Amino acid sequence: MVFGLKKIKMNKKIWIALYGVVLLAHLTGIGLESEVLARLTKPHLMVILGFFMWEQTRGIKNRLITVFIAAQFFSWCGDLLLMNTVTPVFFLYGLGAFLLAQLLYSFFFFRAMQKEKIKFSWLLFFPVLIYYSVLISWLAPQLGALKTPVVIYGAIISTMLLLALHMLYMPAVRSGRLFMLGALLFVASDSALAINKFSNPFPSAGLIIMITYGLAQFFLTTGALQYIQRQQSRHSLF
Of 46, 60, 74, 165, which is most buried with the most CB atoms under 10 A? Predict the structure, then answer.
């Protein structure tokens, strides 16, 4: 039993180190404008986090694990689709893949709210609504034919952020903070991408977008892992 626990902890550190190395290599590729390195490393980011989540939760029966890994899968699809910058329609496909990912992340947080009996907070709702309204109002004149898809995606990721912020009310304080950080960074990444693409391109946009995105997915994954393992420990007591 003790050996098993040590093995899990060792594997966790290996997964985290591997993800950190690949993310750093990807950021280096962007910084050095090495398209080969950037394209080689980006598809591996979500693959590593997906297998990390799967390996660390083997043997645990919890439907939220499937939901979360499915969200990671659609994030991976979105990464691949957005790598195609030649054909404009692939941006729309990538947006669709990430929309599915955000719906699944939102469902994960919604179910966690139900399990933890967390009540809806209007104090969290209004700041998210204001941010979404201001960003969409700013971008809308430049969106053209993509206005409807972007507005819908913005509403979905804002919903994900709102639900993630409610995780701060969980007894699992550390998981709640990781969820909050992950969701905030995800919104920051997508906002930076939208501003750079549709409104005002800015220096080092690629680095900022991928740093926030890479950390967002990492924090969401580690938060979900801690939450699910904590749930399993609580159930094993009865």
Answer: 46
